Amino acid sequence: MIFGLPALLGFLPMVLYIILSFKGKDMLTVVLLCVLLGAALTGQDLLSVGSALNAALGSFMGLIGFIILMGAGLGHLLTRVGVAQNIVHLVVTKTGVKNKTQAMLATMFSSVLLVSMLGSMAGSNAILAPIIIPIAASFGITPNTLGVLLHGAGATGLLLGPFVPSVVTTMSLTGISYGSYLLHVGLPVSVIIWISTFAVAQKTQKKYEGVEVYSDKDSAGEEFTPGAVTNRATAVFGIAMLLLIIYGIVMKAGASYALTVMFAAAFVTGLSAGVSITEILKLLVEGASKMFWLFILFVLYDPFLNFVTESGAFDAIAGLLNPLINMGGAPVFMVAATLVGIFGVSGAAVAQEKVLYDLFLPMSEALGLPAHLWSLVLLVGSQITFFAYPTGDMVGQMGLARSKDLKSMIKNGLIITALSIAYVVIRAVLYQFL
Prior knowledge:
The chain has 434 residues and is mainly α. It has 21 helices and no strands.
């Protein structure tokens, strides 16, 4: 720290980040300001800042940013060749939807499947909505209900896909295997979200049925009829993803393997659809370009967090909290860290998870917290935030469903938040046995 300032003052960039994030300021601007403040507090010069940015490009945060870029590119390609739409079409037609309940379940399953493969809730549900709305409308499902379904189901896709950024981040930070992650974290939290979402959707449907309806224009939608080329490309994509996932699990592949999967899936799918290699690359770049700002954001997160670490702020915070944590042990630590993550840190979920990791890692190591429980804290602490209060994710899904009913969205979000925290509390109390 410059001028021998107390290490705790090195936490100022983090305080600035939290305050400006909750005020809804532009995230790129916020993180850039935090980098500059952190550099000033730790006495960095222009050369060392340049070196930090150079290192950031090859850092874990840079890798996650690039995975997000490629996920967006793959999603764009799948949409252009009709594979994404065909997946939804197959789910709805092959499941033989005959009533409201089945239509709700088909919607949830389609959303989970798309999001878990493409790694983006906004992008995946944007593909799903135009296809599912006419089907939902034909069964009398209200926009209010569909908004709840898209938000809840889409969120679980972000918890289950092996190459989704949030899952890759959790596994990489804690060293947990995918199987262990699913058993202790992904599936239990997803079940909580599914149960709450379906129950709230049912109540919302009863309340607004006949009151809120889709317009004739929305109900008509666009007829999707897959051709032979689209069906072939869909089959190739499905087989390729299955084989790549199995190979990755068997070989215990790391985070970087997600890039191999995305490139391989893009090329075999594109080629099977009759798209040239040049055009495949153009489509990948075209789709990725929409998320380039997020890549820059993740690159900037690395020096931001490293400067805070270099200041000694995280260690100082850990020293202050240690007496409290030691009194309650691992259970108190798990609950406290989770609550701080949900209500005390905001921003992109993956970056939020990294902040939580850096902040509480010393205490987790001191307590000897098992990797699967540490993973639970990190995931719930970062992913449940967009259920705890209205965020862009919540409002965005409501908009995709053509709904204006924020109350139902918030209701489902608060129930999910409460149940997720309760699950962490239960696991914390029983951590020595489970």
